[in-house]
Amino acid sequence: MIRTPGHTDEDASLVVDTKTGKVVFTHVWWNEMLFSSVDPIGDDQNALEQSRKIVFDIADCIIPGHGKPFPNPQKPEASCAMVIKI
Question: What percent of the chain has pLDDT over 70?
C-alpha cells in the first residue's frame, strides 16, 4: 500500500507484484477521466498530480477506481496482460 492523496486526503493505492509486472489499483484516475488533468471533485489537485507521478513511476498496469485497466502510457513495454477478468 502507498499513500496517494489528492482525490481525498486519505486515499491509498494497492501495488501488486506479478510475474509480468506491477499492477496498481488506484483512485488517482477514475472512469472516463483517465488522463484528464483536473479532478472536479478532488480535495487537493497538487497532491493528486504528485500521486499520479508516483503511480506512473511504479505501475506497469493501472486499474482506476471505476474503470477498465490500462497500461502505463509512460512505459512503452507496459501491459495489462497479467490482469485476469473475473
Answer: 88
The CA-based dihedral angle spanning residues 1, 63, 29, 65, taken in that order and rounded to the nearest 10 degrees = -80
| 3 neighbors 11 (Cβ within 8 angstroms) | yes
pLDDT at 86 over 70: no
The listed range with the strongest mean pLDDT (2-11, 34-43, 62-71) is 2-11
Q: 60-83 as b/e, with b when 16 or more CB fall inside 10 Å? A: bbbbbeeeebbbbeeeeebebeeb
Contact 37, 56 (CB under 8 A): no
Supply the pTM of this predicted model. 0.86
